[in-house]
Design goal:
Elements (H helix, E strand, L loop, with lengths): L2 H13 L21 H14 L3 E5 L4 H13 L7 E3 L13 E2 L5 H4 L4 E5 L2 E3 L4 E4 L8 H5 L3 E7 L3 E2 L2 H6 L8 E3 L4 E2 L7 E2 L6 E7 L1
Parallel strand pairs: 1-12, 2-3, 2-4, 4-7, 5-8, 7-12
Antiparallel strand pairs: 5-6, 6-9, 10-11
Length: 207
């Protein structure tokens, strides 16, 4: 018996045999979006920029150049040595000279200035990028430790709402959902960035 089963068993015992059956879960929420692909890209861009992310749109052949330009503008001249990329990131998306993540200790990842990854899905309505631990996304630490995160999103990965996005994901995967740079206003309602993850989010939107 697992700890989960033991806890649920104790709850059932405490509730007794005469407990009421749980109410059915309403599932009449929207599961598809009738907006065009171009409209969804515009909505995603608007939401991400509202969250203080930087969005750069480009053609499929311009990904590496756009990533490199974004990193240079953020990190300064010759940033390649400070960039680590997800192991499954396509070669034509990688900036020259970047280091591929090989499972090195987290303390070493924290020493890099920026990370470049892909995503599994992007939800336009909420401006959320979802990384699932696959090779193109990389392990969770890769997207959380360096101070700048660059995510490459292709047009076919963009969906309208959360239910549609979740339907594309493996529920047991280690999902990381990103809506803008890491920020909190817990202390005296003052916004502080970079507390729980990257302080800078750059999104290269392809299409």
């Amino acid at each position: 018996m697992t700890a989960r089963e033991e806890i649920l068993g104790r709850i059932r015992t405490a509730l007794g045999p005469d407990r009421a059956a749980p109410a059915p879960i309403a599932r009449n929420y929207r599961t598809a979006d009738d907006r065009s692909a171009a409209q969804l890209l515009d909505v995603l861009t608007d939401r991400l920029e509202d969250y203080k992310a930087t969005v750069l749109r480009c053609a499929p052949s311009e990904v590496a150049q756009t990533v490199a330009s974004a990193l240079q503008a953020t990190l300064g001249e010759h940033p390649e040595a400070d960039v680590v990329v997800a192991p499954g990131l396509p070669a034509d998306w990688r900036p020259d000279g970047a280091t591929e993540d090989d499972g090195r200790p987290a303390v070493e990842l924290a020493g890099y200035a920026a990370t470049v990854t892909g995503v599994s899905v992007a939800v336009a309505e909420t401006g959320t990028l979802v990384l699932d631990g696959s090779p193109v996304c990389g392990r969770r630490a890769l997207s959380l430790l360096p101070d700048c995160l660059v995510c490459v999103v292709t047009g076919d990965q963009v969906v309208g709402g959360v239910p549609e996005g979740l339907a594309r994901l493996e529920p047991l995967a280690p999902l990381t959902m990103i809506s803008g740079p890491s920020a909190t206003s817990d202390i005296e309602l003052q916004r502080v960035e970079g507390v729980h993850g990257p302080r800078t989010l750059l999104v290269v939107l392809v299409g």
